Write the structure tokens for this entry.
Amino acid sequence: MKNETTQRKYEITRRKYETTHRQYKITRRKYETIRRKFEIKRKEYETTKSKYEITQRKRETTQIKYETTRRKYETTQKEYETTKRKYEITQRKYWITQRKSETAQRKYETTQRKYETTRRK
């Protein structure tokens, strides 16, 4: 009798163990599936993060290039304005000199005619 009771207890315990073991295997498969999904998501995250950081560095580099180009443009613009003013001043001096030259030429021609007229007399 004691042996039968012990046998029944053993059978109950064994069935509990088997049930628990099946549950463990199911839970472990679920865990492994979730862990693999997590690893995939983690790799995706790392890739995305890396791409973001690369894009951020490119953006910063582009900003620096833009600022450099803008400063060069502003310098060139100032040089252009200065050169333009110098050109306009030189052009005015040229026109004044040209008018003086034309006036002097006319005076010379007038004086020459007077001289020729006076010499003939």
Notes: DSSP finds one helix and no strands in the chain. The chain has a mean pLDDT of 95.
